[in-house]
Write a structure and sequence with these properties.
about 500 residues, Udp-n-acetylmuramoylalanyl-d-glutamate--2,6- Diaminopimelate Ligase, Chain: A, domain 1, Alpha-Beta Plaits, 4 domains, 6-stranded mixed beta sheet, 5-stranded mixed beta sheet, 20 helices, 16 strands, about 55% helix
Length: about 500
């Protein structure tokens, strides 16, 4: 049995030839069928609630008095509409009241309209089924392809597909009973493309179209995300370069940072997060990169939701989030801990299997303050790891002697003293200097015992003794002087923090 459609719904079908109403009755009209009429006399045999499509010849004949007669015959058969295919602009005044009394619509098409295609299209819409569903899907594909090539936004894509489907699509959380398809961007469910079922042939098309639209919206979201991410990454790389550069070599980056709209002269607060179970979550380089990007995006989103201007950078394998304000409007210690907790919960909520270590610095001003808060966050992160505090932020304010050391090292005088003392080691190059610093600190931490240091470093005792003596000669210091010993310990500790 043919599906019952209304005249207004047929007029809205996008892939039919345009049907222009000349006059329509008040209220909608049901349509049960469609008939092609070559002779006006055939109007006397119309089916009830049918649309009569007049051929070009019959339309020419339906002029003046003949049109009035044609309308009376169609009205006596309780027809739904007459379609004139000669592109006329209007009808004689006598025709309008006849059509209104019979609740009969008078429609018109362009003179070059393919009458056969029009009749077949109307019949397809009335019959419903697979033909209509395929036509809707094809129409949606064309519309989405064009909208996508024009750089349409997700909302524009939704509107385009809704027009072709004749059903309102929405981008929202799916509800029970919805025809829906998820929009997943970088493993996160953003929303779903949803339609409410209407229990006719449209539902079959909607099942396919919501997935097509979801894919198109996902692509649009990814393009927008990449565009937003580019300046974030650029500023992050600049921050990383500044923080990793020695103090005297990082100063030349300040003007570049200011030009990049980084408030380096303002107030800064750092939060550092590191994934402790990377090996369990990512088994190859691509998975590792995708996971790091996802954690970074989720962390930045959560930080920005707390208010203020946040920047993202990478320090080794750790995510660094820095709030950079031009005025002293940064949160207090307790509020910072709360914000860090929100960030951790956001990441863990989206990636439940993740294990995070989180350190929170306190607020400092200026370029040196930026380095200081990051050093504090690193110290807090180390304390969190030592205390096995997983998915629980640790604030620098919670630390004891380590905090005092950091505050001492934050001063320019202390930094200059440490740099001057350790410069001969720094000049060895990255690999050799790292090994020398590790040997020296281990020797000092073990109270000058080469045996215990060798055990920790997995070296022979004589090798440790030889290395330490060379380091003392290189630094030109007296290892038997207590003040020198203390300064070396402070310098090694400060370097491990900053």
């Amino acid at each position: 049995m043919p599906a019952v459609r209304t005249l207004s719904s047929l007029l809205a079908v996008p892939d039919l030839p345009v049907l222009r109403p000349i006059t329509c009755p008040d209220g909608d009209v049901e349509v049960f069928g469609v008939t092609i009429v070559e002779d006006l006399a055939d109007l006397d045999r119309l089916e009830e609630k049918a649309i009569a499509v007049l051929t070009h010849g019959a339309s020419r004949d339906a002029s003046s008095y003949n049109l009035d007669i044609a309308l009376r015959m169609a009205g006596s058969r309780d027809a739904a509409a007459i379609v004139l295919t000669d592109d006329r602009e209007g009808v004689p005044p006598t025709a309008v009241p006849i059509a209104e009394r019979a609740r009969l619509a008078i429609l018109c098409t362009a003179a070059d309209c393919d009458v056969t295609a029009l009749v077949l299209g109307l019949h397809r819409e009335l019959a419903g089924g697979a033909d209509v569903a395929l036509a809707r899907i094809q129409s949606a594909l064309w519309a989405l392809a064009k909208a996508g090539s024009d750089g349409a936004s997700p909302n524009q894509l939704i509107a385009t597909a809704s027009e072709g489907l004749e059903v309102d699509l929405e981008l929202r959380e799916a509800r029970p009973g919805d025809i829906a398809a998820p929009v997943i961007v970088e493993d996160d469910l953003v929303a779903s493309v949803c339609a409410r079922p209407v229990n006719d042939h449209t539902d079959a098309a909607a099942e396919a179209i919501v997935h097509l639209v979801a894919a198109a919206v996902t692509r649009a979201r990814l393009v927008a995300l990449r565009a937003e991410d580019a300046p974030i990454r650029s500023r992050g790389e600049l921050l990383t370069e500044f923080l990793l550069a020695p103090g005297h070599r990082g100063d030349h980056l300040l003007e570049r940072m200011r030009a990049a709209d980084l408030a380096v002269d303002g107030w800064h607060t750092a939060i550092l997060l590191e994934v402790d179970n990377l090996d369990a979550l990512a088994d190859d380089e691509l998975s590792l990169l995708n996971l790091s990007d996802r954690v970074a995006r989720l962390g930045l989103e959560a930080a920005q939701a707390s208010g203020g201007i946040w920047r993202r950078a990478q320090i080794g394998s750790a995510l660094l989030l820095i709030r950079m304000e031009r005025t002293d409007s940064t949160p207090a210690g307790r509020d910072l801990a709360r914000i860090a907790g929100q960030i951790v919960r956001r990441v863990v909520g989206r990636i439940p299997e993740i294990a995070l270590t989180c350190g929170v610095g306190s607020t400092h001003v200026g370029a040196n303050g930026l380095r200081t808060t990051v050093a504090e966050a690193r110290g807090a992160l180390a304390a969190a790891r030592a205390g096995h505090r997983v998915n629980e932020p640790v604030s620098f304010d919670e630390l004891g002697l380590q905090r005092t050391l950091m505050e001492w090292f934050a001063s320019e005088t202390a930094r200059d003293a440490v740099d001057s003392l350790l410069r001969p080691i720094d000049e060895l190059g990255p690999r050799k200097s790292q090994a020398a610093m590790q040997t020296l600190q281990c020797f000092l931490d073990n109270h000058g015992s080469a045996t215990r240091a060798a055990k920790h470093l997995h070296l022979h005792r004589n090798a440790v003794t030889y290395r330490v003596n060379r380091i003392f000669q290189m630094l030109d210091v007296d290892p038997d002087d207590p003040e020198t010993w203390l300064m070396l310990q402070l310098a090694c500790r400060a370097r491990s923090l900053g």
